[in-house]
Amino acid sequence: MAGQQLIYYVEDDAHIRDLTRYALEKAGFEARCFPDADGFFAALADRVPALILLDIMLPGIDGLEILRRLRDDATTEGIPVMMLTAKGTEYDTVVGLDAGADDYLAKPFGMMELVSRVNALLRRAEREAAAPATPAAEGPIALDAEAHMVTAGGVPVSLTLKEFELLRVLMANEGRVLTRDQLLDQVWDMAFAGGTRTVDAHVTTLRQKLAAACPGAEALVVTVRGVGYGYRRGDDGR
């Protein structure tokens, strides 16, 4: 799986940084590690990695701010990001996922688990990149998975990676209601006890962006109370 794919890791603890680099390189990856955001962003301007590992507690710019900047930049918004941090509370996990992280691993973590999760994220990114286009046959929303583009009423809609994948999954299952757990599994490829709030938060921001581009388009993403969410072309439910 590895094939010398490049991974960046931002971590201020030299011991953890060195152990992680060693584990990744033993698994066949090319790993570059940085103690802070400055060196990371300098390297990012020169070469974009296949995946990024981020600690939250960093000197200067913290991991969450780094993540926000990555998701706000068209060049880096689609890069898989895993948060690696000593903070393991439900709140911190939700904050990281809601900010756009693709996975979350709390310290202390085993290197075998880390490598396994890295491989899983990279496989998922490859599947998403290879997914066929899923345009809406009718209605105001059109999604092109190959070009990674969404329009609502003909107006381009800028979505994060997870917002895009959430909409893609809902559209691919038009007429079905998916539970929050099903969406967490299909979009985030993980199970997490606090994940329902992450799904709800992403549905809210997705609807806001659709409505801003084409008022009324947000109504196609419907809520079925007590069950979950769906996509229903022509349905005005919420």
Automatic annotation (TrEMBL):
Xref: Pfam families: Response_reg, Trans_reg_C
Residues bearing PTM 4-aspartylphosphate: 55
Keywords assigned: DNA-binding, Phosphoprotein, Transcription, Transcription regulation
InterPro entries per the UniProt record, alphabetical: OmpR/PhoB-type_DNA-bd, Sig_transdc_resp-reg_receiver, WalR-like
Origin superkingdom: Bacteria
Signal sequence annotation: none
Naturally occurring in which organism (per UniProt): Adlercreutzia faecimuris
Protein name as catalogued: Response regulator transcription factor
